[in-house]
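Example record

One chain of 201 residues, shown exactly as stored in the release files.
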Amino acid sequence: MRRPRTGQCHQRRTGPASLPGGAGVPSFEWDVTPGTTTRRMPLAAPWIAVVGPGRADAREAAWAEEAGAAVAEAGAVLVCGGLGGVMESACRGARSRGGTTVGLLPGSDRADANGWVVVAIPTGLGEARNALIVRAADAVVAIGGAWGTLSEIALALKAGKPVIGLETWELGRGGVPVEGVIRAHDAASAVRDAVARVNRH
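Predicted structure tokens for this chain:
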């Protein structure tokens, strides 16, 4: 990226022009120059990962969009795998509320990110990038999901991160349920619980 002559460094990434129903999506811009008034990345805010299938059904997509909106409304940063399905719906929901979205991509091309990702980070790690998503987040909201989501749940629990689940994996050992995933009844309450647990610690 070419540095402007003023010494300021700007990055802007925008999603599609509007949401279904006509709601506008605000552009995002941050400035790393000290003393500027341009919006900055909220580094001190909680980072909440929303994880789930890359091919979501209609109900999972609706939950993910609601979760993303709730993350933004809570003043938190949404982090995800940056692709489609639950990831895209969550990013769309967050951007509809002016939130910040971070996508940790499995491939090496930023252009692979869905159009609602503000900060696209190509890792080139394939599914191994799931560990980075979990490590970047302070808490995880898991919506539905297949094997990739299960790996993120396991990695989060091993790292001591709270995992709030909505219609996601049931954990057990030898036929006996194992505590770990905290159940939620809807997407908004899942995010509220995640943010509250982060703030308590």
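Notes: The two ends are 37 Å apart (CA to CA).
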